[in-house]
């Protein structure tokens, strides 16, 4: 329950300081989490980045004030954090499908994104299979790409395309041949969330000890304790569902805190699209 309470505290803080546009550092501090882990937890549970949530809430409040008062549109633009009325109108239209002027005259339908409230529901009847692994530092080699997330990823996160390219140009096959570590699968790894740019670093990699092959970069992951979750089923959806269960069920029910290390998906099965595909999620804890 501590995670639920801390997340609600952070959400309440966001609501109280919406017009001040608080930084991710200030918000995550309310939840006693690092900016990286708070943003990741929030996004997995809500399908929104923190920036997306605050932007939608501000535009919801702006629409309410627009229809209930005679406040000038230019004043509303500045109040809700836009440098120009044009920028405000563009963002308003994107969310509501109409301009501020049209909304004031009752033209179009407004979209209200309501304040988030975390509710506890009965879950956990279906077991989650996992093991605890203590590991010394290890190295992965592969390719890294900066990918958009949140509203910046409206045209796609770029991650499926990255995998498509890696499969088509033989990168995945090369990485498979380089596997010589504990994790026997090609890895999808996320780290380094950048709140200002709305991006995250994504790696397609393999655990490998030895010289870094030409054309690849390397990343050394420090010693840590890992929770390794079994993920069974059609991989594209099974992985997403597993992450949601980890953050909504497993973490609140166990006494571990998240470590400041990359989150790893290990694609072990030769057929990722089979209902019997068996893969893993590696989550560092402390």
TrEMBL record:
A single GO molecular function term of this UniProt record: DNA-binding transcription factor activity
All copies of domain HTH araC/xylS-type, residue ranges: 8-106
Domain of life, per lineage: Bacteria
InterPro entries, sorted: AraC_E-bd, GyrI-like, Homeodomain-like_sf, HTH_AraC, HTH_AraC-typ_CS, MarA-like, Reg_factor_effector_dom_sf, Tscrpt_reg_AraC-type_HTH
PROSITE patterns, per the entry: HTH_ARAC_FAMILY_1, HTH_ARAC_FAMILY_2
Entry keyword set: DNA-binding, Transcription, Transcription regulation
Keyword flag DNA-binding: yes
Protein name: AraC family transcriptional regulator
Species this chain originates from: Paenibacillus ginsengarvi
Source organism phylogeny: Bacteria, Bacillati, Bacillota, Bacilli, Bacillales
């Amino acid at each position: 329950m501590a995670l639920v309470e801390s997340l609600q505290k952070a959400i309440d803080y966001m609501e109280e300081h919406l017009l001040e546009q608080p930084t991710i550092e200030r918000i995550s501090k309310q939840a006693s989490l690092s900016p990286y882990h708070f943003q990741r937890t929030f996004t997995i549970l809500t399908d929104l980045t923190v920036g997306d949530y605050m932007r939608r809430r501000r535009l919801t409040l702006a629409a309410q004030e627009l229809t209930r008062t005679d406040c000038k549109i230019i004043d509303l633009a500045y109040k809700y954090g836009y440098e120009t009325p044009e920028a405000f109108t563009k963002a308003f239209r994107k969310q509501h499908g109409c301009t501020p002027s049209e909304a004031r005259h009752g033209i179009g339908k407004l979209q209200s994104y309501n304040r988030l409230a975390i509710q506890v529901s009965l879950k956990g009847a279906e077991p989650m299979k996992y093991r605890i692994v203590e590991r010394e530092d290890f190295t992965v080699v592969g390719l890294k790409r900066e990918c958009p997330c949140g509203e910046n990823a409206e045209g796609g996160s770029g991650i499926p395309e990255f995998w498509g390219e890696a499969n088509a140009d033989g990168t995945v096959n090369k990485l498979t041949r380089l596997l010589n570590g504990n994790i026997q699968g090609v890895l999808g790894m996320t780290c380094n969330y950048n709140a200002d740019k709305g991006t995250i670093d994504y790696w397609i990699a393999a655990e490998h000890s030895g010289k870094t092959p030409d054309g690849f970069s390397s990343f050394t992951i420090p010693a840590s304790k890992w929770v390794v979750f079994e993920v069974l089923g059609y991989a594209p959806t099974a992985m997403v569902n597993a992450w949601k269960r980890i953050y909504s069920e497993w973490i609140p029910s166990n006494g571990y805190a998240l470590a400041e290390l990359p989150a790893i998906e290990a694609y072990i099965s030769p057929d990722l699209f089979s209902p019997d595909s068996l893969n893993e999620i590696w989550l560092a804890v402390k």
